[in-house]
Amino acid sequence: MSFFQWLGQVGITSHPGGWAATERLLARLDLKPNELAVDLGCGSGRTLTYAARKFGVKVVGVDIIPSLVSRTLVRLKDKGLIGYALAADITALPFHDETFHVAWAESVFVFLPKPDAFIEVARVLKPNGRFGMVELTWKGERYPEYCEQTRQFLGVRRYEVLTIQEWTAMLESSGFEVRAAEKMPSHSPPSPLPKWLSDWWDLMRLGIGLARQVPTRKWLEGAHRIANLFRYTVPAIFVTVKKS
Ligand SMILES: C[S@@+](CC[C@H](N)C(=O)[O-])C[C@H]1O[C@@H](n2cnc3c(N)ncnc32)[C@H](O)[C@@H]1O
């Protein structure tokens, strides 16, 4: 089972930098009521529903795992929000050119082929459309072997952490002007607990999901490897505008 399928079973998702990174990213994107926004790799839909409620944007979620799309749709319905979600691959988005005012992604592009995936995002953004993301960057020296270990452990095809300069250059060469590239202070969520942990139902899902998988030797080893990766990386926020 791949990491994404596992996330689909557990029914909750998150990203490095946690809720603090989400709030900073959305604030930097300067969302306006009624703008059409797409959350790329929306997972269980927490960020998307929050953005719809707080900023009044019309949201569309895209994720490759259908059960996560269902979770997102249920979340939107439960909160009485206008929005939609669909199962699709970010590298071949089922949208016309120049559809969205704004797009964002949280911990998704590490898994995707670059620059193709960025070029696809630029395609579906309107002229001067904004794109923001939270992604892992190296703190200092690079340790590509930790990416390879993480890739193997998660059972995914690709897992590439870049330096902040490399992400910036990749975005610039894919049709974006980078307006901000900021490292978060650290991996650890700020106190008090991140919002997603305060949702008891999600906590229960996580507990059940972990109980199904842990303890197994594979997962204990994997946790150790991911701890190594996290020791040498830090999440960063990128805010860009599509070049005209
Ligand atoms: C680390 S999770 C982050 C989810 C969500 N952004 C969040 O922060 O909670 C990565 C997500 O990207 C999705 N994903 C990975 N590759 C994808 C692709 N090619 N197209 C669409 N979604 C993809 C996964 O299914 C997963 O939900």
Structure summary:
This protein is 41% helix and 23% strand.
Walk me through the structure:
With 244 residues, the protein is α/β, with parallel strands linked by helices. It has 9 helices and 7 strands. A 7-stranded mixed beta sheet has the order 3-2-1-4-5-7-6, sandwiched between helices. α5 (116-124) links the parallel β4 (100-106) and β5 (125-138). The radius of gyration is 17 Å and the shape is globular. The model is unreliable at 189-193 (pLDDT under 50). S-adenosylmethionine is lined by residues 4, 7, 13-15, 41-43, 46, 62-65, 68, 89-91, 106-108, 111-112. Residues 4, 7, 13-15, 41-43, 46, 62-65, 68, 89-91, 106-108, 111-112 line the site of S-adenosylmethionine.
The best one-word shape is globular
- Uncertain runs with pLDDT below 50, 5 residues or more? 189-193
Proportion of residues in extended strands: 15-25%
Number of H- or I-type helical stretches? 9
Name the ligand types: S-adenosylmethionine
The share of residues in helices is 40-55%
The CATH architecture name reads 3-Layer(aba) Sandwich
| Strand order in space, largest sheet | 3-2-1-4-5-7-6
- Total strand count, please? 7
CATH class: Alpha Beta
Total number of domains = 1
Radius of gyration: 17 Å
Q: What name is given to the CATH topology?
A: Rossmann fold
CATH superfamily: Vaccinia Virus protein VP39
Quick check: average pLDDT?
A: 89
Order of helices and strands: HHEHEHEEHEHHEHHE
Task: For the record, give the distance between the C-alpha atoms at the N and C termini, rounded to a whole number.
Answer: 42 Å
Largest sheet: 7 strands, mixed
